[in-house]
Amino acid sequence: MSAQTNGQPHERIGVYVCHCGSNIAGVIDVEEVAQWAADKLGHRGVVIARDYKFMCSSLGQELIERDIVELGLTRVVVAACSPHLHEQTFRTACARAGLNRYLCELVSIREHASWVHTDKRAATEKAKALLAGGVERVAQHAPLEPLRVPIHPATLVVGGGIAGIQAALEIADAGYPVYLVEREPSIGGHMAQFDKTFPTMDCAACILTPRMVSVGTHPNITLLTWSEVTDVKGYVGNFTVTVRRKARYIKTDLCTGCGICQDKCPKKVIDDVFEAGLGYRKAVYTPFPQAVPKYPVIDYDNCIYFQKGTCRACEKLCPTEAIDFEQQDEYLTLDVGNIVLATGFDVMDARRIAQYGYGRLANVFTSLEFERLSNAAGPTNGRIVLRDGVTTPQTVGIIHCVGSRDRNFNNYCSAICCMQSLKFAHLIKERTGATVYNFYIDIRTTAKAYDEFYQHVLEEGTIFVRGRVAEVTDAARLPGEEGKLIIQVEDTLVGRQRRIPVDMVVLSVGLEPRRDSQEVAKLFGISCSANGWIIEKHPKLDPVATMTEGVFVAGCAQGPKDIPSTVAQGAAAAARVLAHIQQKEIALEPIRASVDETKCSGCRICNNLCPFNAITFHEDRMVTEINPALCQGCGTCVAACPAGAISGTVFSNDQVLAQLEGLLLRTVKGMQLEEGVPA
Amino acid sequence: MPKYLFYPGCSLQRSARPYQDSINAVKELIGLELEDVRDWNCCGATEYVAIHHLAAHALVGRNLALAAQQVDGTRTVMAACSACYLNLAKTDSYLRADADLAEQVNTALAAGGLHYTPGTVRVRHLLDIVVNDIGLDTIKSRVVRPLKGLRVAPYYGCMIARPDRDNRWDNVEHPVAMDRLMKALGAEVIDFPMKTHCCGGHMTQINLPVAFELIRRLIHGADQYQADLIVTLCPMCQLNLDAYQADVNRYFNTDYRLPVVYFTQLVGLAFGLEPDRLGLGKEFVDARPALSRIGIELPPAEAAEAEAAVARRARKQKAPAGLPMPRMPNDHEEGQ
Amino acid sequence: MTGSFEPVIIGFTCNWCSYRAADLAGTAREKYPPNIRLIRLMCSGRLDPSFVLKALASGADGVLITGCHPGECHYLEQNYKALRRFLLLRRTLTQLGIEPGRVKLVWASAAEGHRLAQEITTMVEEVRALGPLNWAQAANGFGPEPVSAPAAAEGGAA
């Protein structure tokens, strides 16, 4: 069937309608749609229209490739799933057959039709309209080449927890430079606070500190602790990042890490960060003894010298004169090619749940507080005791799902609390022999060796009560409750309300995104979900990439997960970065705007519209120019130009308006097509 | 002066007379103008709705209809008794949500020549208005005799905060409005864990042992925290905790002597008003010994009684806190 | 044809947020009426107001413009420009005699598949209540009444 000349460029368009098994074909009559394209769109250039079960399969792609070669197709339209899934697949298939990849259009009739409509007739008719839109649009496509940009070999890793450490080490071991930026004085993250890690009961510090030391001594890693990223400019392969190195007030080239300053500092404050509010540190401090780097920092707000002008004991006693009260913040500008965000999590604020009495009842602890209690280097040297610091509890209640799986707080499951609660039960039994109750909704022990651990804890004699705790109170009512904390819970397996007196309550609080995750996301040009977790490119198939090329995410910043998964994601992000670096350049979509200087009248309406500073005005020639390297392809200037002097590739006016014509089936209905589309 | 329509309810005239007296005493000082709903009737308390749903709503509906007729500049109906407040608020919200019920109720009201369009009036509790409309700054400015040294246990009872259809309260399990008010008066507020636990309500008429236990645990809870008195905002709660305290003591062989007063009485004391004017002295468990703590002069006999009461309640030695407690936010900064 | 009027609505989506929201609605199998047909742009800022006019003139009964929430635009602030254009566009449309309810602006993030489906459903009903636009009959230019599909290329179908 030959295409008719119709005043438009002569194109030979191949149409392929996918069944996608029954995902599309179950609702849309795909054979009818293909046949319709052949019949009704023939005068628009369609020379062949096929339907096939799985277009994305190799056989499906071969159909396209063969038709390109044998039928001399100049354009291809595939009606299938979302372009976000398979646009690259079909473009690559076209490229293999010798057709420019940008002459291929993927129309979504799955996510946008078969999956969302129940009326099969209406969905089929809509599929036809969508297909017609694609056919009209593709006729307006122009052959393009991807832009190639060089990849700077350095990488920025933000966050020095286990995820960031893993990513940094892998990239550095491969021979490329890494900047690791960490906001606290030392790397280590939350894992450094833990005592033992499940399910193996490895000591967290023992497995973490060797990695920390590797990071600290690695020739390829520049460790920037007590620092924050303040600005990010550029695009994949070419980011310019500004890092603020907060003043430590310590000269790191002179400091030996001897610790005399910490010992002698007279100002003691509660350590809210590392000790979770349960212990103390000095105004000059390293967060923990194995800190990397070993250099302390001075806490400006609590230092007696900074606040009152006296003391200066550390300065007097430092054997190498490393204290420098005059030190200023330093700003560094770093050029990197890729960024890995590994900023971790915060725990839910248990004070929000008033019924559990955290903050009011002395012996209610959060999970992080308990980690510090059980840690041998913690405020009680590893003795599990009550808030008085002395008494060993005889009975302990551990509450799962505090603020998780709860519509009033966080709807999601925090993934690690069940195993963590079992770990606590095990440690308490081991160290104190106390009676332990675990209050749970479900026991989630999904990964390797997890359920075996649960069975072990069962055998140890921990009592499990299935029920969400209603209240923790000290208001005694029955004999035996005086002086205790009473847990009021419905035991759903027994079918009764129970009041269980305990000495100590541990709340397994849920994980939450960092409090400033929205600001961080904006800084790096990525998005957070409604909850605040960083959004990954695809939840199943691409969990470490973000929508922004060159910015990756690893660890709990993406969602709650345990240490093995965190490490895996850190390694995955590193692999992605290394793939970029080793290719030395990356292909970017050639979606760019450009100015036709002959049409530009110098009105400058577009000049203020570009947030990437890609638009410059030439005073001498009174015309505007767009820098293709900086242009991100949003198209705002294209829409704004009153003279129509700015055109955009891949989403040009011709293409969008042609698609519109097709969607409204005007071409099918045989209407006069406009000559010269409006600007 | 902000004006509100006032629904007094049956208790205020009799068993909760001190509540009414103290409201009248302080209202001008805080700039509260009240206009009684004319010809109001009983709200049905907690019983009627259990007997006949429609009649109960119609009973309340009549009050709403009468108040609606008086809407003029203000459309807020204020109730001081929690049960009255809850009945009026709940009925109004049910009528708003259920057109059939509204129609039936209006049919009943028509017999009396009345009609009520649901949502015409807004129903709020006196505490809500004092804390949110009058504002704690105004209250503080009127305090001449700060209640310094007086340990109060704020007791809200169960009806004021639940159900909270109009989102009047910051936290339905642990509201802090009255805590903040007491702090503004200079009192020392204990963090009373039983603050919204039930006082037993009408269980005193139905099953005395159950009621006694509910009352006992509240008093015991306050006593555990060494409260000097319990401050309430509901006549039912005040009655149960106060009038039945002696019975509870007999039943459990305990010796509690914890007075129970209305928050408006404490407001009045802080404003420098005399106890008699606020209805103090009428309660079963005399509040005046506790009030000696804030410098209220007592006749010598009673003063001796007050000393003895203090001696009886030996202060528990607090164990030295080895580990720091979690830092709590300043209550003034959070919530309503 | 069915008795009730079935409006045709054109929806402009942005690649990063609202198009993904539509995809999410699809993967979540959220149902909405088939009256809407989506066009993908890279950004809501790409939306030339003349696209909207063209859509209405070409047979659409309504246009839904969607983009990222203010503050969350992938290109930082371009959705604000879209908002400015939309406000002016709406005024222009009113002056042309087109009911403002026919053109709607909705912000939807990539996570809001369910919400987008609801917004589409609401808009379809709203436009249905307004009735067909029939621009070609109401206004002068932009083309003749649609004829039935041509069998042969008589006069060349353009």
Account of the protein in words:
The complex is a heterotrimer of chains A (679), B (336) and C (158). Chain A is an alpha/beta fold and 679 residues long. Chain A folds into 4 domains: 132 residues, Rossmann fold (3-Layer(aba) Sandwich), CATH 3.40.50; 179 residues, FAD/NAD(P)-binding domain, CATH 3.50.50.60; 82 residues, Alpha-Beta Plaits (2-Layer Sandwich); 167 residues, FAD/NAD(P)-binding domain (3-Layer(bba) Sandwich), CATH 3.50.50. Chain A is 27% helix and 23% strand. Chain A has a 5-stranded parallel sheet with strand order 10-7-6-18-29, covered by helices on one side. A 5-stranded parallel sheet of chain A has the order 20-27-21-22-23. In chain A, helix 2 packs across helix 3 and helix 6 packs across helix 7. Chain B is an alpha/beta fold. Chain B has 2 domains: 124 residues, Glutathione S-transferase Yfyf (Class Pi), Chain A, domain 2, CATH 1.20.1050; 169 residues, 3-Layer(aba) Sandwich (Rossmann fold), CATH 3.40.50.11810. Chain B is built from 14 helices and 8 strands. In chain B, the strands form 2 sheets. Chain B has a 4-stranded parallel sheet with strand order 2-1-3-4. In chain B, strands 6-5-7-8 form a 4-stranded parallel sheet, with helices on both faces. The radius of gyration of chain B is 21 Å and the shape is globular. The C terminus of chain B is likely disordered. The C terminus of chain C is likely disordered. In chain C, strands 2-1-3-4 form a 4-stranded parallel sheet, with helices on both faces. Chain C is built from 5 helices and 4 strands, in the order E-H-E-H-E-H-E-H-H. In chain C, 38% of the residues lie in helices and 15% in strands. Chain C has a single domain, classed as Rossmann fold. Chain C is α/β, with parallel strands linked by helices. At the A-B interface, loops of A face helix 9 of B.
